[in-house]
Each structure stands twice: as C-alpha cells, then as structure tokens.
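note to self: dont lose this again. the chain is below, predicted strucutre after it. 124 aa total, dont forget to put it in the shared folder this time
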Amino acid sequence: MSETPPPASLLRVIANARPDLTTAIEHVLHLPHLCPVTLNPAPGSTLTLRYEAGPGLLELFSLDAYIDAFIGHPVVRDMEFFVQTAAQDAANLLGCPVMAHADVTFNRLRQGQRVTVTAQPSDG
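---
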C-alpha cells in the first residue's frame, strides 16, 4: 500500500516575470467540503493567502490540488489547524511571510469563524 504524499509536496512555484515591481498577491480559494462526515466547511467558505511577491509566485493549479489533499485528511481536521498549516506551507515554499485568512461557515451550527494566521518561513 502506498503512502499519500504530504499536501505541501503538491504546491508549486512559478517565476515572477517582474520581481522588480512591488506586487501584493492574494489567492482567494473557495473551500470544498473538507470533512466527508459533516460536509464542513459549508459552501461560501474561503481561504485567502496573501504575500508580497518575490522571485516566485504560488502556482494556481497546484493550490487547488493542495486544498483538495485536505479532504478527509487524517491529521489536519479542524479549521484552525488547516489555516495554520496552509500559511506555514506557503511561507516555507515561497521563503517569505504569508498571511492566511479563512472566512468559514459551518453546517449544523449557527455560527461562522474567521481565522487569521501569519507564518514566517521555517526550516521544518
């Protein structure tokens, strides 16, 4: 039986065509149901990744694959940990600080949640 690769291994970087220009990037990802049991987060939930562009940019298709890798994930099971993980993985790959902001609504609850995390690149 083969092991599932870690979600971070799915993220890719493309070259920034104009690294000489100050460029703020925001990726707004519409979240799928990450929990197959509760079907949370509910439709309309988003994760925004924000960073100052350097020599590389997060590649769009890999971001979709990365988010999909968390569907039914055995370890990253709550939204707080999910947002923290996404921020850290992106910061590590880009080599710059990344702010992750999630606006989440839940099925079977009368509440939403906002989670904001700023991650610095780390070695591990």
